[in-house]
């Protein structure tokens, strides 16, 4: 998608949008935007075809949800908002333009909501949802009451969006369609840069150039933050510094401005020591495991430091960080089997998540239920995705989730499962959603860890797995053995 399709952030405010209608309002990004507008007191409607969990919360806030897509949904509407997942010939989008209504891409509507605020924009190939959540909680702990829109839900807050009274606006900036280039951040944070969304960019060099352009849009009075441990982030820092811009870095690298050391990760969480410019900031702890979580949290510490917030607020917020839904989310236990859900679908984030889950599994086995996300990614990164899945002891693979994509011969999960380096009896491609719980119940043993991983729909599978495992236990012992949380 060409950035020229988007209008850069300007003087348009959320209040200027009037009555707002969002097409596909149940999606993660759209539901967060809808919630932001609703908590701001604006009239909001939306259309959807599936009863996503987020819809109940929108209705409770006064939103009108239409469970159809039709022209009548636009009656009385002033502004129609769509995402990149909505085709240009969608009937509501076509009707909105026929009626002469204001039509905005999600990012344009979000930019309007940021007008007049100090925007903290977090971008990157991996970790941006978790990092945005951490930064938000640090600002909340410091009493800043930021507005925020996140691509996931903070477990403790139970929301991915909020209209705050403070001067800061924290946003997860999406690079997938170049729409992050319309934002004008006060602080831009890039967690890492790796090959992804090459259907949009073509190659890594073009993707890196887009991240550099995003960073250059940062207010000259503000801050640019990158990860010194990430090769892409390091190259970006070198490029920007050569242009005379000051870049602040974090990581384990010896030359990082905020440096981590003595990182320890276990099933109980992660802890590390931090120092900035040679001055100790003390020890930081998170109740969620994974070295990558520690690295994400360090960027939140650096952000707080640059914004002049108390480092103690960052320490307290991170110590209480509950995680993000669909990011290492514990769904429950049934018949001695622990079930998690994880959003990772890129091989790097998959590897980090599965290595952490193996720590949690201990002496038990790790069973992965994976739904690949997008045909082009599954095709272009098949070897890397297969290698990541090889960390599992058992694999149950669903077909690729790729709305709007056309599958070519030889593409999809049937080819992927063959590439996974596991014995044939420890991996299986299951073509029907309804057959997955049966397959998992057949394979899982008490003490095992099962994780549903990948595209958005797989997040709904965890409850079905718990039910199947509980039914198995009930059949064996005459009672249910499932517990939530």
Automatic annotation (TrEMBL):
Whether Chloroplast counts among this entry's keywords is no
Look up keyword Oxidoreductase and say if it applies.
no
Top enzyme class: ligase
UniProt EC number: 6.3.2.8
GO BP terms in the entry: cell division; cell wall organization; peptidoglycan biosynthetic process; regulation of cell shape
Q: Where does ATP bind?
A: 124-130
Q: Which reaction does it catalyse?
A: UDP-N-acetyl-alpha-D-muramate + L-alanine + ATP = UDP-N-acetyl-alpha-D-muramoyl-L-alanine + ADP + phosphate + H(+)
Keyword list (alphabetical) reads: ATP-binding, Cell cycle, Cell division, Cell shape, Cell wall biogenesis/degradation, Cytoplasm, Ligase, Nucleotide-binding, Peptidoglycan synthesis
Give every Mur ligase central domain span: 122-303
InterPro entries, per the entry = Mur-like_cat_sf, Mur_ligase_C, Mur_ligase_C_dom_sf, Mur_ligase_cen, Mur_ligase_N, MurCDEF_pg_biosynth, UDP-N-AcMur_Ala_ligase_MurC
- Pathway membership: Cell wall biogenesis; peptidoglycan biosynthesis
Annotated Gene Ontology cellular components are: cytoplasm
- The principal localisation class reads cytoplasm
Give an example GO molecular function: UDP-N-acetylmuramate-L-alanine ligase activity
- Return the similarity comment: Belongs to the MurCDEF family.
Q: What does this protein do?
A: Cell wall formation.
What name has this protein been given in UniProt? UDP-N-acetylmuramate--L-alanine ligase
| Organism, as annotated | Micromonospora carbonacea
Q: What gene name is given for the protein in this entry?
A: murC
């Amino acid at each position: 998608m060409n950035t020229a399709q988007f209008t850069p952030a300007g003087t348009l405010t959320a209040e200027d949008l009037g009555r707002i209608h969002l097409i596909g309002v149940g999606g993660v990004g759209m539901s967060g935007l809808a919630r932001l507008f609703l908590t701001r007191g604006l009239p909001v409607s939306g259309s959807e075809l599936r009863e996503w969990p987020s819809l109940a919360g929108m209705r409770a806030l006064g939103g009108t949800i239409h469970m159809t897509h039709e022209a009548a949904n636009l009656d009385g509407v002033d502004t129609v908002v769509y995402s990149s997942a909505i085709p240009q010939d969608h009937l509501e989008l076509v009707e909105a333009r026929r009626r002469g209504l204001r039509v905005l891409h999600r990012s344009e509507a979000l930019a309007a909501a940021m007008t007049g605020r100090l925007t903290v924009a977090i971008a990157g190939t991996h970790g941006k949802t978790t990092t945005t959540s951490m930064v938000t909680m640090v600002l909340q702990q410091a009493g800043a009451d930021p507005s925020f829109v996140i691509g996931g839900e903070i477990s403790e807050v139970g929301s991915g969006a909020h209209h705050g009274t403070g001067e800061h606006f924290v946003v997860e900036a999406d690079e997938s369609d170049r729409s992050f280039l319309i934002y004008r951040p006060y602080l831009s944070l890039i967690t890492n840069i790796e090959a992804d969304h090459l259907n949009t960019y073509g190659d890594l060099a073009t993707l890196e150039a887009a991240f550099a352009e995003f960073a250059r849009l940062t207010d000259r009075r503000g801050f640019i933050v990158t990860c010194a441990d990430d090769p892409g982030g390091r190259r970006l820092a070198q490029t920007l510094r050569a242009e005379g811009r000051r870049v602040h870095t974090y990581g384990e690298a010896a030359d990082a401005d905020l440096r981590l050391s003595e990182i320890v990760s276990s099933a109980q969480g992660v802890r590390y020591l931090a120092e900035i410019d040679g001055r100790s900031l003390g020890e930081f702890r998170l109740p969620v495991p994974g070295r990558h979580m520690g690295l994400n949290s360090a960027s939140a510490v650096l952000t707080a430091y640059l914004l002049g917030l108390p480092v103690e607020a960052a320490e307290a917020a991170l110590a209480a960080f509950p995680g993000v839904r669909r990011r290492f989310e514990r769904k429950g236990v049934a018949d001695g089997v622990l079930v998690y859900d994880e959003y990772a679908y890129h091989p790097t984030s998959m590897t980090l998540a599965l290595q952490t889950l193996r720590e949690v599994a201990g002496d038990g086995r790790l069973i992965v239920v994976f739904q690949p996300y997008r045909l082009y990614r599954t095709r272009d990164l098949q070897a890397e995705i297969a290698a990541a899945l090889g960390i599992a002891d058992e694999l149950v693979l669903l077909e690729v989730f790729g709305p709007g994509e056309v599958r070519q011969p030889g593409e999809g999960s049937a080819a992927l499962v063959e590439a996974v380096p596991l014995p044939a009896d420890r991996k299986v491609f299951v073509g029907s959603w309804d057959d997955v719980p049966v397959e998992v119940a057949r394979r899982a043993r008490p003490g095992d860890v099962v994780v549903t991983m990948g595209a958005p729909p797989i997040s709904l599978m965890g409850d079905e797995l718990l039910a199947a495992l509980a039914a198995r236990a009930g059949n064996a012992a005459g009672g249910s053995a499932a517990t939530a949380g």
